[in-house]
What we know:
Radius of gyration of chain A: 20 Å
Shape of chain B: elongated
Number of helices of chain B: 33
Order of helices and strands of chain A: HHH
Helix content of chain A: 55-70%
Helix content of chain B: over 70%
Largest sheet of chain B: 2 strands, antiparallel
Radius of gyration of chain B: 37 Å
CATH class of chain A: Mainly Alpha
Largest interface: A-B, 89 and 99 residues
Structural class of chain B: mainly alpha
Number of strands of chain A: 0
Oligomer: heterodimer
CATH architecture of chain A: Orthogonal Bundle
Distance between the termini of chain B: 84 Å
Strand content of chain B: under 5%
Amino acid sequence: MEPLIAVAIGILFAAAVYMMLRRSIVKLVIGLMLISNAANLLIFATAGMVRGAPPLVPEGLSAPVGPVADPLPQALVLTAIVIAFGVLSFAVVLVRRAWEIVGADDLDKMRDTDT
Amino acid sequence: MQLAVLGGFAMASLAPLLHQWFGAQTPRVMALLPAAIAAWLLGQWPVIAAGEVLLLEWAWVPGLDITLTFLIDGLSWLFALLITVIGALVLVYSGEYLHGHRDLPRFLVVITAFMMSMLGLVLADNLVTLFVFWELTSITSYLLIGFNHTDPAARKAALQGLFVTVGGGLALLAGFVMLAVAGDSWSLAELVQRGETLRDHALYTPLLLCVLIGAFTKSAQFPFHFWLPNAMAAPTPVSAYLHSATMVKAGIYLLARLHPALGGTELWVTTLSLVGALTMATGAFLAIRHTNIKTLLAYSTVMALGTLTMLLGLGTPQALTAFVVFLLAHSLYKGALFMVAGILDHETGTKDVTAMGGLRRAMPRTAAVAGAAALSLAGLPPLLGFVGKEAMLASVLAAEAWRPLILLLAFTAAFLTLAVAAIVALRPFFGAPRETPTSPHEAPSAMLAGPALLAALSLVFGLAPGLLDPLVAATLAGIGAPASGVHLALWHGLNLPLALSLLSLALGLLTYRYWDRLRARLACLAPLMARGPEAGYEALMAGMVAFAGWQTRLLQNGHIRNYLAMTLLVLVGLVGHALFFRHTFTLDVDLDVYLHEAVVAGLMVAGAVAACVMRSRLAAVAALGTMGFSIALTFVLFSAPDLAITQLLVETLTVILLVLVLFRLPRFATLSTPLERLRDLAVAALTGGLITLLMLSVLSGERLPRISDYMVANSQPLGHGHNIVNVILVDFRALDTLGEMFVLALAATGVYAMLRFHARDHATARPAPPRESDDG
């Protein structure tokens, strides 16, 4: 599965970068969402993808039976998903606020700090 | 000894405090330290005279072969003695010169630090240590030249001196590294023993050139001579110190020190003797164009430095003897003359010699000191300068290569210097008295003591040069010349050097007689002078600024996406290069995919691509949702239930947020040209491709053992939780989670604040932005 997901992640990154290079500020936000998802998936997949072995300890035992998926990258990605959401909501509100004040959605027209 | 030097730096930093305790006496108190070091050095004289080399060991960074070991032989002893004795005199002198000056403590801090840097430079045995002190002298001299920082000219001169010397310092560092590689040692004491190996080494030419650039910039050799006269913007005690004993002699010291290691080759002889002779003549010629007494003296320093370099280049025992004598003579008379110049400036309020006259009545003692020192500068008997000049002319006459040219340049320099000496010593003191901005008085004895002592030494050593024989012999041993049979004398009989001296005396006096007229004539050369090396420096600086402006406008153009594209391209270039050329890239992965997994991955990709190409905002949000839920499905399929739950929640919230907010935002607009889109697509494709390749490369490499085994094993026993990911989040890595909560809280505060502003804006009836109701 990993080679396939590697290609998928590459396409996700390419899409994200393309959107972040746009002048429209709304597209920039979409690029931001794409890149955070792509990065999460990259961390998750690089650690190795295991089918059907979640890192859980069965009831009554002190350790899982047999090998399980690596829990550490999962914990990292979990944190990253939540933080990405925080950043996204901030960015979205910021963009909206900028649009209200400047009245332009073209980044090239937002070069002045005095508006 | 090391403690004394380091203590000197400590004392420098305490100068403001000392100034509060001792007031105007501070310079004299501080002069005790160099005086004490000088006394200690004098105490070592029997050892030095016996030809022994003192190595004071002191480890600094043993792992890197960097030591603070001091090497004291005849050469460094002489330099250290000059630095400390003249340093002490200058400190006492500056107490008077800058009496009551607001910034006296700052001056004391910098000049003491400079003194100690210089001392460290001449005593250091290790190349790295020497370089550190070398750069310290550049920095402290920058602060000294720019002491009057409110004067733009002083600031410019300081910066110029810094750029030239530090630029040379860079070359010197490269030279030192090559020297250490070629000689397989960082210790000067060892390197001077390995002259044979060094001279035959393949790196000899580049390393010599680098070292020479460093030494030439520091010692103001042509074509780097221009910074030295400009450095006259410094207070006069600084000029006296920098131009007599120290800073500018650092390059000379280095050349002398490395003479046994690098000297004697054809490249060495040709470069040093020609550059030195050219500097000599240039300095002397440029001197007589000026009427400012400090500028005159500065150019004559350039002349003297050229002489020293030339003598080192000639390299015969005779020339090296002349080198030592000339060095000593110059330090003595130039220190004295600069201090006299300071007295004149202090007492008359002008630095222009043509504005002074008849001062001998008001300042008879100053006139006597100036006369003695100038006689030495002119190279007239019975002063030490005469001994030096005779020896110099004799060694030039014995030169093997380029003799006519060098002789011509040396002779020109000699008679022009004589004219300079006459201008400095006669013009202000004789002739009709002139009105000066302030009415002159005899200088206070504290100011006169220094120059008087130095002039007296010139006279004593001139009358009895035999006293110097052991000193010269000991110094010669350090330069690597046969030291036996050194005998200095004032009178050598009627010979060719004496005849040349007489001729130069006549020509020099003629020049002095017609100086005013000559200067007027030379004024027509001004356009030519404006094209000198200094113009080259200015052009270089202007070019650098223009280049910086151009590349700033190109790279820092204020478009964030250009920065992003640039950063990504650099990343792709560097990482890609490392991936393909530094790392053998192998593709060794097995593809076992179930159909449903491929469908999920396909949906994910389709969602991402659709989000980019959709013209409608609602469709784009829906596409993003598709991608997010496909990622959640991937988490489900590959053993990450917690991630799947979080992703589902967050994705739902995101879609709601976007739907709420995005429709208050403008529609998608097409702002870029097709060409720009193509360019961005290329950047995006390169970045995505690099990520894919990197990940494949990671996957095909050897797997390292996981670091989470501890967590897996102890989740239940220690954390009392069955969900290992949860235990990691709230227990093993709880602080990370705390940080995450802070981030979320901050984001929430920011969002809330911005929405509140919005509400207030509406309350103050601000025109609402165009709202759009449909999704296009």
